[in-house]
Amino acid sequence: MSDTKLHALKARLHLAEKVARAGGAKALEYFHQRDALVVETKYDLQDVVSHADRDVEQMIDKQIREQFPEDGFLGEEYGLQEGNSGYTWVVDPIDGTSPFLNGMPNWCVSIAVLHEGIPVIGVIYAPYYEECYVAALGQGATLNGCRLQVDPSRTLQNHVTGFGANSHVSPTEVGNILAALLEAGGNFIRIGSGALMLAWVAAGRVVGYYEPYMHAWDCLAGYCLVKEAGGWYHPFNTEGDRLLKGAQVLAVAPGAQTDLKRIAGI
Q1: How far apart are CA 57 and CA 266, in angstroms?
Q2: Which of 8, 145, 164, 155 is nearest to 86 (CA)?
């Protein structure tokens, strides 16, 4: 990587962590006043959004625009704003809105930066846990400043796998996936935030994470974290309008890669 590209990467990495923490602090204020929030549904009754999501996204967008006005920006709530710098920010202001609104701590702010379609920065901040996961291409991954490295001895059979699904996936498909996972000797957990569970893959808390249908703002920051921690991820198509569509998401430590790819049909 040239000095110019490295400087551009580090400048955006610094800002990504700053706005993730600021967004998380604002979201946490709303979390403590969540009973006063007006909640709306989007795709179905399980897909919810509140003023907190929108307010946090707008704040993050504004701070990024002030420093990098030519970068693109894709947020879950307000969509894609094209840029011309080659960099695009991909933001989920509150991933895990359902846990958030129901008083559970399993939610986070997720911020990725793409360069020419590749996730080169990933920051996931979980305010309730006071945990900030940070990664950049070639720079490694950290949790609150401590280096992350997946354990190659952990497998599907001796660890636990993260799983997620939504109404885009049929109940039959969900059942088949979980049956295959259990038949292979594995076990699973689900916490309601795919982004946070991807960060947990990088941290070694789960051996992998699979979701049959997930959006870019949910997964790209976690993908960068997992790769920089020594794991593998199934590429997400970021070309053209594919960036706006859901896709299969799988990120995994090496010891469970073969098993989880087979279960996912990848």
Answers
A1: 33
A2: 8
Distance CA 148, CA 40 (A): 37
- Kindly report, residue by residue over 80-119, the tens digit of the pLDDT: 998 999 999 999 999 998 899 899 999 999 999 999 899 9
Pair (132, 182) in one structural domain: no
Q: Which domain holds residue 180?
A: 161-264
The SS3 assignment for 118 reads strand
Q: How far is CA 48 from CA 59, 210, 228, in A?
A: 20, 22, 32
Q: Are residues 134 and 184 in the same domain?
A: no
- Which tens digit of pLDDT belongs to each residue from 225-249? 999 999 999 999 998 889 999 999 9
**Rounded to 5 degrees, what are φ and ψ at 238?**
-105, 10
Q: What is the CATH number of the domain that holds 98?
A: 3.30.540.10
138 and 197 housed in the same domain = no
Low-confidence ranges of the chain (pLDDT < 50): 44-48
Phi, psi of 68 (to 5 degrees): -130, 70
For CA atoms 83, 63, 91, 115, the dihedral sign is positive
Whole-angstrom Cα distance, residue 24 to residue 50?
15
On whether both 60 and 180 belong to a single domain, the answer is no
Q: Which amino acid is at 96?
A: G
CA dist 167 and 108 (Å) reads 21
260 with 206: CB under 8 angstroms? no
* Cβ proximity of 109 and 127 under 8 Å: yes
Q: How many domains does the chain have?
A: 2
pLDDT the model gives residue 40: 61
Distance between CA atoms of 99 and 96, rounded to whole angstroms? Answer: 6
10 Å Cβ neighbour count for 32? Answer: 8
Residue with tokens 């796998």: 161
- Verify that 175 and 81 share a domain, yes or no: no
